[in-house]
Amino acid sequence: MRLAVVSDIHGNLAALEAVLADLEQARPDAVVLGGDLALGGPHPVEVVDRLRQLRWPSVLGNTDEALDEQHLPEKLRASFVGQAATRTREMLGPERVAWLTSLPLEWRSDGVAVVHATPGDCWAIVAHDAPDEKLREVYGAAGAPNAIYGHIHHAYVRELGGLKVANSGSVSLSLDGDVRACYALMDDGHIEHRRVEYDIEHVASDFEAIDYPNAQVYGTWLRTGEFPNR
Known about the structure:
Blueprint: E1 2-6, H1 13-26, E2 30-33, H2 44-54, H3 62-65, H4 80-92, H5 94-101, E3 106-109, E4 112-115, H6 132-139, E5 146-149, E6 156-159, E7 164-167, E8 181-187, E9 190-196, H7 200-209, H8 215-224
Parallel strand pairs: 1-2, 4-5, 5-7
Antiparallel strand pairs: 1-8, 3-4, 6-7, 8-9
Helix pairs in contact: 7-8
């Protein structure tokens, strides 16, 4: 099966549209969304509505869960994430929020398991340079020979002898220094990352236009592929 994993769109419509155009060229048999679909971008409504039209399966991301105030840790409510969650929740309205927060924690088929962060936890962080032993411990528990996750916004593939672990990269807000939209494409066990250019300046200006919380920080993040020191 030729499978695309598209994760961490973060309300970035221009990046999503660029990826959709590339998917028409890549022609996967199936597409799975890796979570973090809406929060952290100026177009959450348009992104969620477009994805629901496509009817692709998705797993729950931590910023999807954060839209439910009951699941947002108290210590984060006044934080960067908490401020974005409040604004995004208002923009989306209760019905879209209910859809996002009801997504499952994992998707699996044909020897592939997709999670947002780790099996059973959409918040835990496993870095791209984690030791092999850590990857085996965490993703071996998924019970599939191929485990793909998002969350860290840093694309990589690691072969571990009977277990392949990959991060899909992120459609928006990269943390691996490459500002292009990124997703993973798996074909007969081989995983590649496809990088797609889009109009970053337009998205950065949209943050400013709607006075999104921390708009300048998000704009810098988009332009650099690194989270800026504030």
